[in-house]
Write the structure tokens for this entry.
Amino acid sequence: MYNSEVLKGEDLKKGAYVFKIAGIGLAAGLCNGLFGAGGGMVVVPAMVHILKLDEHDAHATAIAVILPLVGISSYIYFKNGFLDFSTSWPVAAGGAVGGALGASLLNRIPSKWLHRIFGLFMIAAAVRMII
Amino acid sequence: MLLFVIGLLSGMIGGMGIGGGTILIPSLIFIAEVSQHVAQGVNLISFIPTSLFAIIIHIKNRHIHFKTAFHLIPAGALGAILGSFMASCLSASLLRKLFGIFLLVMGFYELLRKEKEKKEEKKSK
């Protein structure tokens, strides 16, 4: 059906896709396991810029990718005694309420300076953690 | 109460699309004086209920690309296993420094992000 050149081109495309997918997945998983955070900050821009997903779809898809990774990492953390449930529950409850509030505020607050403020906050915290 | 407020604020920030965990973990360490490994574990656990709700809403609104998600999960799972074992082998002070470096990179990305997007919009127009 296909001539050989087309097949080669498609194989190459497929190979590149598998390579990209494996790289993005591995990077997101490593961050998730090693830092317990940040999988989304890797996978969302990667899906937007490399896989060309729409920004909103990338956010939604990222959650579906990260949830199973969180399950795996949590299990290993649990086995190593790093899960403290008495600290986790109040934070998780606050996080659920805050997440709903944040999502409803999403389009009402100009995100440009929001990102800048939190970028600065993250840099300040980072410097304090490194020193 | 303090823990609830920390969760609330970082949840709000996460809900607005800025990595909530990258803010939650340093807050837990500096304000609630939780150890590095435990803070990371708290962030993992607190992701689960919120993200379950978010997934249901996103499925309703048809924003999830299931094919892409299923393709990314196997390599992601491998990474999560490797990363978690690495974290369990590292001392709290070394892990904290590595986390700090990661946070620094992500902080600069957040700070510079908007200008990049503007340029791309112009290009596509």
In short: Confidence is low (pLDDT under 50) at residues 115-125 of chain B. The helical segments of chain B are 2-15, 20-30, 36-60, 66-89, 92-124.
